[in-house]
């Protein structure tokens, strides 16, 4: 009888040890999973930042090209308007001189 009680007690102690060991393994697995998740999250954050920088750089290059093209077009239009106004100014000057001469 004492032997059976000793075996039961030993089995209970072994079960307690197995529970402790299982809990410890579960904690370690949980910590490892948490660490792996954090590393993955950090990796994805860095990847997203790199992608965002690339998108921004492309957008800035496109905007610069657009502005350069519009600046060139605006400059050409300004020159054309200057030429037109110069010709009109000469014509107006000629008309004024002609009227002054007619009155004399």
Break the fold down into its secondary structure elements and pairings.
Blueprint: H1 2-103
Q: What does it look like?
A:
The protein is mostly helical and 104 residues long. The chain has one domain (1-104). The chain is 98% helix and 0% strand. It is built from one helix and no strands. The protein has one helix spanning 2-103. The radius of gyration is 44 Å and the shape is rod-shaped. The termini are far apart. The mean pLDDT is 91.
Number of domains: 1
In whole angstroms, how far apart are the ends?
A: 150 Å
Number of helices: 1
**What's the oligomerization state?**
single chain
Strand content: under 5%
Helix content bin: over 70%
Spell out the helices and strands N to C.
H
The helix-and-strand class reads mainly alpha
Average pLDDT taken over every residue: 91
Radius of gyration: 44 Å
Q: What low-confidence regions span 5 or more consecutive residues with pLDDT below 50?
A: none
Shape: rod-shaped
Sheet with the most strands, sense and barrel status: none
Counting DSSP E segments of at least 2 residues, the number of strands comes to 0
Which key features would you list for this structure?
104 residues, 1 helix, mainly alpha, rod-shaped
Q: Could you give a quick summary of the protein structure above?
A:
With 104 residues, this protein is mostly helical. It is built from 1 helix and no strands. The chain is 98% helix and 0% strand.
């Amino acid at each position: 009888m004492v032997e059976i009680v000793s075996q039961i007690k030993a089995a209970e102690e072994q079960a307690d040890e197995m529970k402790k060991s299982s809990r410890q393994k579960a904690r370690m697995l949980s910590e490892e999973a948490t660490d792996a998740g954090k590393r993955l999250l950090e990796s994805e954050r860095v990847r997203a930042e790199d992608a965002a920088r690339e998108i921004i750089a492309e957008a800035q290059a496109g905007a610069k090209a657009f502005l350069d093209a519009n600046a060139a077009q605006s400059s050409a239009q300004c020159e054309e308007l200057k030429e037109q106004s110069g010709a009109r100014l000469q014509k107006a000057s000629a008309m004024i001189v002609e009227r002054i001469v007619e009155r004399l």
